[in-house]
Design a protein that fits this description.
The complex is a heterodimer of chains A (310) and B (422).
Chain A (H helix, E strand, L loop, with lengths): L1 E10 L2 E11 L4 E5 L6 H8 L7 E6 L2 E2 L4 H7 E4 L11 H11 L4 H14 L15 H13 L5 E5 L7 H16 L4 E6 L2 H7 L2 E6 L2 E7 H6 L4 E8 L4 H8 L6 E4 L3 E7 L5 H10 L4 E7 L3 H9 L6
Parallel strand pairs in A: 3-8, 3-9, 6-7, 7-8
Antiparallel strand pairs in A: 1-2, 1-4, 4-5, 9-10, 11-13, 11-14, 12-13
Helix pairs in contact in A: 3-4, 4-5
Chain B lengths: L1 H12 L2 H21 L1 H4 L8 E7 L3 H14 L4 H13 L2 H9 L2 H6 E5 L2 H10 L4 E5 L3 H10 L9 E4 L5 H25 L4 H6 L16 H30 L2 H7 L4 H31 L7 H32 L3 H18 L10 H9 L1 H14 L7 H21 L9
Parallel strand pairs in B: 1-2, 1-3
Antiparallel strand pairs in B: 3-4
Helix pairs in contact in B: 1-14, 2-12, 2-14, 4-5, 4-9, 12-14, 12-15, 12-16, 12-18, 14-15, 15-16, 15-18, 15-19, 16-17, 16-18, 18-19
The chains are: A alpha/beta (310), B mainly alpha (422).
Organism (chain A): Sinobaca qinghaiensis
Protein name (chain A): ABC-2 type transport system ATP-binding protein
Pfam families (chain A): ABC_tran, DrrA1-3_C
Amino acid sequence: MLEVENVSKSFKGRNVVEGMNLYLEKGESIGLLGPNGAGKSTTISIISSLIKPSSGDVKLNGSSVIKKPAAIRKVIGIVPQDIALYEELSAYENLLFFGQMYGMSKAGLAAKIQEVCRLVGLEDRQKDIVKTYSGGMKRRVNIAAALLHDPEILIMDEPTVGIDPQSRSYILEMIRNLNIERGMTVLYTSHYMEEVERLCDRVYIMDHGKVISSGTKEELKNILSAEETIYIDFDRVYPAMYDELQHHQDILRASETENGLKLIVPKGSRLLSRVFQITERHKAQVTNVNVSVPSLEDVFLHLTGRKLRD
Amino acid sequence: MRPFLIKDFKIMLRDRSELVALLLMPFIIMGILGTALSGVMEGDTSSIDIQLAVVEEDAQQEGIAAFQEQVRNSGVPPEAEEELAAAAEHMNPARLLNNMLEDPELSEMIHVQTMEQSDAQAAVRAGDVDAVLTFPEHFTEDTLNAMLMNNGNGSELELLVSDEGSINTTIMEDLLAGFTDNLNAESAIAAAGAGGEEAASIEIGGTETLSQNEPVSAMQYYSIGMAVMFVLYVAGTIASKAFVEKQQQVYNRIILSGTKTWKYLAGKIISTAVIAFVQLTILFILSALVFRTFELTSFSFWIGMLGISAVLAVCVGCIGGLLTSLSIRTESDTASGVFTGVIVTLFAFAGGSFFPLDGMPAFISAFGSWTPNGAAMNAYIRWVQGFGWSELAWPIMQISLVSIAAAIISFLVFPRRRSVSS
């Protein structure tokens, strides 16, 4: 449906996006994962035809979006990172204005506004001025404005930044429903790993303007298939024992957590018994042990050597 | 275009600080300036009170008779003799000066008392009078001889003042200088034989009327001056809001909806023009209601005012479009900031919003007449004075030319497609 072919973009001699390749099938939910400054927003602007790439092409059903931007503008709904609304107007007035910009008929638009307000849970407060809304409510109107014209592809640029957990959960659930129940294709960018894990079928991991890895969640996690993670919590901090574990020859990586240590060890190494021997020697009180499969966060850490929100 | 207009109108109405800046502020300033400067603008002379002592050492009739005697003895032809005799009666300089001082307008300011020289000297020393004007002996005879026969050096009026450099003495000095200049001009015409009828038609000391139209009151002047100044702020305000739209990606959302960039720009121009027109109309009506500046019931008068306002509002709309183009292109609100912070004040100064430009250098007046506010001010003032439509053609043409230039540049400058945003 949508293909990004070897797209690069540079601003003032600095490469913001480099050799980007990405595809999107109808009905898919794709995650674009990367830290701030990775090039996610620029990629979205190129896909949506707002920015012309320095090289490469974006194709919608085989036709170049760069040459004919009107085609993609009809089928995408963009949820920008900023609250792209008029704060002095009500949610209803904002939606009415943007609907009119899409050339929607008066009667059709009125019904559509009610539908999207219901969808984002703002039916009762649609006549309130946007600047009186909480951050989460503004984000929901921001999404509603992108849904007015029934887009085939919904492109969301970090739509949950800076909102409360309830609103965040509501928005994620709503996006999941749009994807599964309505078959809407979703391209979701975030630096929140758990959001991408929850929403997306496939993931592109970006860093420094490049896609450093891509695939389904399982494919990506298989990068770390030779490893497993052991979380051990203690009643208090034991510096000498921590130091010994961090330098143990069979432990690949060890880092401190809030209540203890996180150990990355070779899969099937049966290291747990040796770890307990060390804790007994140091008379350390173990309060919890958890052996887990790797997360996308672990994958990102493995690929880049740093955490997503570093 | 309608959605843009309704949206911008609602945003403007809900922004209290903007309403204060665009409506309340000019209204207050027009009230303050109109009241404070009404004396200066309308020639209020109630505060001027000059006490003048006049000393008559000259005998006017004897002087005229002596002059006519000299003419008879000079051997000029009989026709010329008759004319000169008549001219001497007509141009009696002492009488002309007295007539000028007795003019109703001047007599409100200058209170004349005839005194003997000694009393007058004492009065001026005591500060009872501001000045002593002395007609010296043989003043009439000597002056007529110099004026009409080019004979001798004439005579000099003597003005003794109590306080050199004070307003009252300066007024007296200017008045006498004006009188003698006029007298010299008239005598030159008479001596050149330019025709007794023409010379006789020149009034000395009267008020020169430049037109038959009504003078503009200070309140009218500043109502117009402040309205044409503050209407320019609408252009800056709309452009700065366009910059916020761009910054917050609302502009991108509009463009992604398939709206053409020219429609967005045209929407901004129309919104600015309509808001500017409403602002001007409200300010003039408020001024008429509160300050009694304009006659509210004259339909034809208001048609003219609204017509000029419409032309000015379109110009402000085009300037708003230009500033919007610059803001979107540069992704900065510097253009609107410089316009509202510097250019509006410059335009207001050069366009005459703060004070009339009569005494200003010609290049400032010329520049001011090409500013939208300056040209509009010319048009409004002419209309208030009662001039016809034909007299408004040139300032309206000037405003229209500025509008066309601003509109063309704004469409050329506006980024066509895919502006950069990271």
